[in-house]
Structures are given as C-alpha cells and as structure tokens.
Amino acid sequence: MATITVGFMSSFRPAFDGAKSLDIEATTLRELMRKLVERYPRIQGHLDEGIALAINGQIYRDNWDIKIQDGSEVYLLPRIQGG
Questions:
Q1: What predicted TM-score, i.e. pTM, was given to this entire model?
Q2: Residues 6+ apart with CB under 8 A from 7
Q3: Which of 32, 49, 67, 80 fits a disulfide with 26 by CB distance 3.0 to 4.6 angstroms?
C-alpha cells in the first residue's frame, strides 16, 4: 500500500476540515477517492460537480484505476469543462 500526499485547491479545504494537505494510503485513484469520501463525506459534493486528479503533475480525469506509487503527490483539481 502506497503512502501518498494529497493536496487540493483552497476551495476544497472546508470539505477537508481546513487541512492544506493529507497523507493517506491507497494503491489506485479510485481507492484514494473512496477513502477520502469515507473520512470526509463533504467532499462528495465536489466529486458530483466533477474533479480531475493529478499524480506528480500528470492529470487524470476519467481513468481512476491508475496505480499510485509510494511517495507520489496527488492533487485534486476542479474539473475544467471544455467546449
């Protein structure tokens, strides 16, 4: 199980009880999000609106089965709508 640091935009902080970042264990983006929602249910509203996840700077929007390596930095971003 990888220990990763999760960062996020300041607009997400209220959902994470004011934290600036979190350390959590997960092996995939899907597992990470499941654990975050379990611990911080208020993040679900942001998920419903759409988010993107970046692992070490590479953005993932739709494939949450991506493996996360130990020590990776994951960042939650509001999903930007294209048009």
A1: 0.85
A2: 20, 21, 73, 74, 75, 76
A3: 32
Q: What is the rounded end-to-end Cα distance, in angstroms, of the chain?
A: 38
82's CB contacts (< 8 A; 6+ apart) are none
User: What's the CA gap between 39 and 35, in Å, rounded?
Assistant: 6
* pLDDT tens across the length of the chain (83 residues): 778 999 998 999 999 999 999 999 999 999 999 999 999 999 999 988 888 899 999 998 878 899 999 889 999 998 776 65
Which residue in 27, 22, 76 sits closest to 53, CA to CA? 76
Q: In what order do the strands lie in the sheet with 73-78?
A: 21-26, 2-8, 73-78, 51-55, 58-60
